[in-house]
Design goal:
Family: Belongs to the 'GDSL' lipolytic enzyme family.
Pfam family, one: Lipase_GDSL
Shape: globular
Largest sheet: 5 strands, mixed
Oligomer: single chain
Helix content: 25-40%
Radius of gyration: 20 Å
Structural class: alpha/beta
Strand order of the largest sheet: 1-2-3-4-7
Protein name: GDSL-like Lipase/Acylhydrolase superfamily protein
Number of helices: 13
Low-confidence stretches: 1-50
Organism: Prunus dulcis
Strand content: 5-15%
GO molecular function: hydrolase activity, acting on ester bonds
Number of strands: 7
């Protein structure tokens, strides 16, 4: 009976995903205003308010652009036919508006916190904007849940915008800036803005670890990592050719500690799956070395690599220090570690996510995103970025 109910629920979600016409996500300035606006819903009244970092009076950079996957998707997948959508509660219940926006979290994602640090509004989704330059000039978010470096990664979930397609969307935006602002103004805007890239995890979750197309027999983990890094390297060089100078590249998180794999591998006492984490660490090592090479190869560029694995493992190992006492179980889901089934309804969620590391089977809570964003910004909790953090990058180029 329970299985039948689950199948019916998933079928309803698929139907609503394909035929529904989602409304436009809130305009970013309204999201900022919402900090002092709507009254919290009863379900989130027990949640402590999200601490707001100090906001500069004037922006430190012209704009923040975001490319990536569900770790930074702010609503692009709301406009696609896919299972990978977070446009329903309890997603967003602890967000500033207490409504789902398409973020795969109970609240904010890391780029929300970093936008405020830079003196910018929350970055709007590319597919949700109306095409006017005024709505794009302080940044756009192209990220798409399910996307990977490999074009077909995550395709079993439905539509998504791959890494290469997102780069093309960014290029189209740049061309629109040239037409609207003039070439020199567009160059100044892009070269002084920050591009944040967070992608690659789906190439493991939905491709390598699932052994799609017998990939594990074709590539050992080291070779697969090298392949992904070389693809990412080429796209960064393509972006550099259109005057992208400031790039933050985010490494992969320790998905071997994610509730989904704890459940799948039947881990005892919440112990992480080391063989998965070893592959992730290897990828991050390759990426950090590749970024060092690119910094030397591309004159006037300032590219930094932030190892989110290091920051995340610090949170897991020192969870009590960060006020987090639920380190293995997701706040929302079903099954062992609540990692067997994704977060589908408010009834599946815990009452208070602020003491959890994991929100659902793969994604961290708002509380963890805030800590990781602090680390990207200035290494507040643990050094994560090399050779400098984002605050130093902005100060260095100012």
């Amino acid at each position: 009976m329970a299985i039948n109910l689950l199948l019916i629920t998933l079928l309803c979600i698929l139907i609503s995903t394909v035929v529904s016409q989602p409304g436009s996500p809130p305009f970013p300035q309204e999201l900022i205003n919402a900090i002092i606006g709507p009254t919290p819903s009863p379900s989130s009244s027990s949640i402590p308010p999200t601490p707001t970092p100090s906001i500069p009076q004037t922006p430190l950079v012209p704009a923040l652009f975001v490319i990536g996957d569900s770790s930074v998707d702010c609503g692009n997948n709301n406009f696609l036919g896919t299972f990978a959508r977070a446009d329903h509660l309890p997603y967003g219940r602890d967000f500033d508006t207490h409504q789902p926006t398409g973020r795969f979290c109970n609240g904010r994602i890391p780029v929300d916190y970093l936008a405020l640090r830079l003196g910018l509004p929350f970055v709007p989704s590319y597919l949700g904007q109306n095409g006017r330059v005024e709505g794009m000039i302080q940044g756009l978010n192209y990220a798409s849940a399910g996307a990977g470096i490999i074009f077909t990664s995550g395709s079993e979930l439905g539509q998504h915008v791959s890494f290469t397609q997102q780069v093309q969307q960014f290029t189209d935006t740049y061309q629109q800036f040239i037409l609207s602002l003039g070439e020199q103004a567009a160059i100044d805007l892009i070269s002084n803005s920050v591009l944040y890239i967070s992608i690659g995890i789906n190439d493991y979750i939905h491709y390598y670890l699932r052994n799609v197309s017998n990939v594990q027999n074709l590539y050992l983990p080291w070779s697969f990592n090298q392949f992904l890094a070389s693809t990412l390297r080429q796209e960064i060089k393509n972006l550099y050719s259109i005057n992208v100078m400031k790039v933050v590249v985010i490494g992969l998180a320790p998905i071997g500690c994610a509730p989904h794999y704890l459940s799948q591998y039947r881990m005892k006492d919440g112990q992480c799956v080391e063989e998965i984490n070893d592959t992730v660490m290897e990828f991050n090592f390759v990426m950090r070395y590749m970024i060092e090479e690119l910094r030397e190869e591309l004159p006037d560029s300032n590219i930094i690599f932030c190892d989110v694995f290091e920051g995340s493992m610090d949170i897991i190992k020192n969870s009590e220090h960060h006020g987090l006492n639920a380190t293995a179980d997701a706040c929302c889901g079903l099954g062992e570690y609540k990692g067997f089934v994704m977060c589908l309804s408010p009834e599946m969620a815990c009452s208070n996510a602020s003491n959890h590391i994991w929100w659902d089977q793969f994604h961290p809570t708002d509380a963890v995103n805030a800590i990781l964003a602090d680390n990207v910004w200035n290494g507040l909790h643990t050094k994560m970025c090399y050779p400098m953090n984002l605050e130093e990058m902005v100060a260095f180029d100012s």
